[in-house]
Specification:
This protein is of the alpha+beta class. 42% of the residues lie in helices and 12% in strands. The protein is built from 14 helices and 11 strands. The strands form 3 sheets. It has a 6-stranded mixed sheet, with helices on both faces. The chain has a 3-stranded antiparallel sheet with strand order 7-8-9. Strands 10-11 form a two-stranded antiparallel ribbon. Helix 4 packs antiparallel against helix 6, helix 4 packs antiparallel against helix 10 and helix 4 runs parallel beside helix 13.
Length: 386
């Protein structure tokens, strides 16, 4: 069944957010602001697109980004994933009147909650595993489609619902899949989000799935170490990015008995004392995070390898029900089956088109009898050459 989002007017978006008042403001995304809204008595999430000040901008770019985002929301492979937020509708009334309405009752953004002591180890693991599984599905290679690249992973772009399930809400720089391939298009200083991009990408400008892996590694380090990339430090280079801090302090010491685990884990002390944490998990997840933020893309793991590592953690095995592992693995299987169905449908359409084309050519071709009559008829007007 084809899904069609509702088209809202900008006045309707103002009405459901109380004219985008500060009380309903949750945070920002790369090209605008995010608000709580109320639609028909139901709490929703509203994205209001704005012309960016930080980036070089050309007229109409936000409209193009919104269109690509809507295409992804409607893609059958993606829209049923438990970590994907559902699109209710959108508004497109010109450059300054753009917005999305998303089916989500938000608790808060990951950016706002990552430093809080009330955000437990198990809840953080729920975010890590859920988001990793979504990236694995997006990066999966298809026969007829390029894998999706997010290119702007940020804690601002992940909302948590009341059960601490992560929901990705922004796809404004997405590339591949059913969207435009933007890997080699001029970026005009658009290289992801602040604190989530490494120098290799800034130097060579080569987009690949490993750029998303680097950003995920930064997000992983933030969640386990209770640190954040604060926008107020944007122009203060004395304050290191989270991945720079991690590279500075991650120096495992080797003793006669082997590696000393406490020097090998970057998990915050307050989290290491909480239910579900084990020292072996802390060491393993730290090692994985540091692999994700390696300088060269070839040294970083794929998201498939990351998910495999996460599923092997003791906390995941012991708390699978709370983390929703069965649901996430089911979504991965469903995405694979959906991709197979899409491929078969495309091949069936190609076969039907080929048969119809052959039939059309055959019907348009004169029969042998009529051709011979035509040859006889026209030959009567031809003068033989002596």
């Amino acid at each position: 069944m084809e899904y069609k989002p509702i088209r809202f007017s900008f006045e309707e978006l103002e009405l459901c957010t109380d004219s985008f008042c500060e009380e309903n403001l949750i945070g920002t995304f790369q090209f605008g602001k995010v608000y709580r809204g109320y639609l028909g008595g139901k709490e929703v999430l509203v994205k209001k697109w704005e012309i960016p000040v930080r980036y070089r901008y050309f007229y109409g770019e936000n409209e193009e980004r919104l269109e690509e985002e809507i295409n992804l929301f409607q893609h059958s492979k993606m829209r049923h994933h438990p970590t994907m937020v559902k699109l209710i509708g959108y508004c497109n009334e010109g450059e300054e009147w753009l917005g999305d309405v998303l089916d989500l009752k938000p608790l808060d953004s990951l950016y706002n909650i990552v430093l809080k002591d009330s955000f437990t180890w198990l809840q953080r693991m729920k975010v890590i595993v859920g988001f990793a599984c979504l990236l694995e599905v997006m990066h999966a290679k298809e026969e007829k489609e390029l894998p999706y690249l997010l290119r702007n992973i940020d804690a601002h772009h992940i909302m948590l619902d009341e059960d601490y399930n992560p929901k990705l809400i922004d796809f404004s720089m997405v590339s591949g899949g059913v969207c435009l391939d933007q890997r080699f298009l001029p970026s005009y200083n658009l290289y992801g989000c602040y604190g989530y991009v490494n120098m290799y990408l800034l130097t060579y400008g080569e987009w690949c799935d490993k750029a998303d892996v680097f950003a995920f590694g930064t997000l992983l380090l933030m969640l386990i170490s209770k640190r954040n990339n604060v926008e107020e430090d944007l122009h203060n280079r004395e304050v290191p990015f989270v991945h720079e801090w991690a590279n500075n302090v991650y120096k495992p010491k080797k003793t006669k008995m082997g590696f000393f685990p406490s020097k090998w884990s970057l998990v915050h002390k307050s989290l290491s004392r909480q239910p579900g944490f084990s020292l072996r998990d802390g060491v393993k997840i730290t090692k994985m995070a540091m692999r994700c933020v390696e300088y060269y893309p070839c040294d970083r793991p794929t998201m498939k390898q990351v998910v495999k590592c996460l599923l092997s953690l003791r906390v995941v095995r012991d708390h699978a029900a709370f983390l929703g592992i069965e649901r996430l693995l089911g979504a991965r299987k469903d995405a694979t089956l959906q991709s197979r169905v899409d491929r078969e449908n495309r091949s069936d359409l190609t076969r039907v088109d080929r048969e119809n084309r052959s039939d059309l050519i055959e019907r348009s071709r004169p029969s042998r009898v009529s051709r011979s009559k035509e040859e006889i008829y026209f030959s009567s007007f031809m003068v033989p050459v002596s």
